[in-house]
Amino acid sequence: MLKKTILFLLLSIISSYAQNGAHSTTSRVSRLFVSQDETKFLTLSGTEIVLWDNITNQMIWMKKLSDLGLGNEILHDPIVGVDPYLKYMVLTNKMSYRKLVNLTNFTTTAWPYYTYDFVNDGRIAVMDYDFNKKNSHTTYLLNLDNGQKELIADKMGDLRVIGNGKFVRIINHDKSVNDYKYDKYKVYDMATKSFNKSDFDWRDLDNNFTSGEYKVTYSYGAKSITTTDANGKQIANFTVKNPVIGSMENNKTHLFYVSETQPHAYFLEQDSNKPNEKLSYLYVYDITNGNVVKRIELHDTSESAKLISEKEIGKQRQIEAENQRIFNLPENVLKRRLSNLQGNAYYNTNTKGIYYVVPDKPLYQGDLVRMDALNDDPKLKMEVYEKIENLENPSIYKKIISKKSCIHCNGKGFISNSYTRTVADYEYTTGKKLVETTTNTNSCGNCGGCGLTPTF
User: Fold this and answer.
1) Cβ neighbour number for residue 129 with a 10 Å cutoff
2) pLDDT by residue (tens digit) across 322-365?
3) Cα–Cα distance measured from residue 15 to residue 87, given in angstroms and rounded to the nearest whole number
4) CA 409, CA 406: separation in Å to the nearest integer?
5) Which string of b and e fits 88-117 if b means at least 16 CB within 10 Å?
6) pTM of the model
7) Cα–Cα distance, 65 to 70 (Å, whole number)
8) What Å distances lie between residue 181 and 30, 157, 275, 400, CA to CA?
9) How far apart, in Å, are the Cα atoms of 72 and each of 312, 325, 432?
10) Where are the beta strands (DSSP E) in 46-193?
11) Tag placement on the chain: N or C end, fewer CB within 10 Å?
12) In angstroms, rounded to a whole number, what is the distance separating the alpha carbons of residues 384 and 372?
């Protein structure tokens, strides 16, 4: 009887531990990555990275972001990429750093690129930039183990890794960096190591996953999964268990991985029954019927873990208070005011002149802003200064969209009027009729003399 009681207690302890996760409840888990062989998965919250055994559902290791040199602040909505073997992570907080984390030895180094997507063989797609000319960048596949780079495209504008790392979409820009020539893009196929010339709409892979003969589409708004077969026939349609509706902080329920060997979809979900608590779960669904294959609690809700979270939240509040204090320092407020003006053109309602506020210049004598007084003739452009409070006064300076030549003076900045008269004395004494021409030149009242007029 005693042995049975001890065994029951041991099983109860093991079961309790299995249901309790590893992340602190300081912040929700926001990212999920599954290894290519599906034996492990990695989760990221605002304070920790955790590697899990996908067979036993137990934590393998947990690392605090602060211990990896990623700062003491809670990481909110980062851009993150992890290779399919869970050896490397690249991430940025979008403000102060871009980092490469080696998940084997936990070293952290600066990440010199602005790309974060890995392909299915473990390499990462990177770009070398040439900003002198549009669509002149170069794309490589970088091996982080040995530093070798394979050139796959040049004279391009941007890239996207799609189709679970099987393809790299090469994009060219049209009129601006946000204007894509979708009819001109190329797709590099990792399997054939060549560009695919198919008419298939590769944008379809942005929101869809494939699993063997099935295609899986996740509707973020409806929080539902639709599974279709190779012929497009619907096999299943079901809603996730925690369809959280609310702020962006709460809306981190998302489909992150679909198995290519099993009909399984991996979902990261936030507890909809306790929206004010930071509780996250891994759900694995059978995509053919919506059944839950497994559910793993990702947070440690023990009393000791809650104490750690309270300390971390308290530290975050101190950091935020200090950041706010620095943000509101008079010199920083002045810098932001100046930055808001620089790089813009303004029309002076008094002089009718047009002025360009030169970027990357400090304030002079405490409150003077460096500007260029523009002219239709570029050679007549002048360096001028104006008080910052005057520039911020919309009754004096109005921000303009563009400028054009004045139609009244044809861009000259002045208007000439000529008239003639006969000089009578000379006509009678010399017997000749003399005509005298007089020209008056006045500054153009329409453009104030600069030869330019604004477009608002």
Assistant:
1) 10
2) 888 988 999 999 999 999 999 999 999 999 999 999 999 999 98
3) 30
4) 6
5) bbbbbbeeeebbbbebeeeebeebebebbb
6) 0.70
7) 5
8) 32, 10, 41, 30
9) 9, 17, 96
10) 48-53, 59-64, 79-82, 88-92, 98-102, 108-110, 124-128, 137-142, 149-156, 158-162, 167-171, 186-189
11) N
12) 6
Side chain identity at residue 292, one-letter code: V
Query: What does the pLDDT look like over 249-266, one tens digit per residue?
Result: 445 678 889 998 899 999
Token code pair at residue 352:
């009718």
Phi and psi at residue 160, in whole multiples of 5°? -140, 135
CA distance 142 to 151: 9
- Token reading at 361: 């210049």
Residue with tokens 């070398």: 128
In whole angstroms, what is the distance from residue 151 CA to residue 443 CA? 59
Q: Work out the end-to-end distance of the chain between its first and last CA atoms, rounded to an integer number of angstroms.
A: 89
Cα–Cα dist 375/285, whole Å: 66
How many angstroms separate the CA atoms of 386 and 334, rounded?
15
81 φ, ψ (degrees, to nearest 5)? -135, 140
- Strands in 175-253 per DSSP E: 186-189, 194-196, 208-211, 214-219, 224-228, 234-239
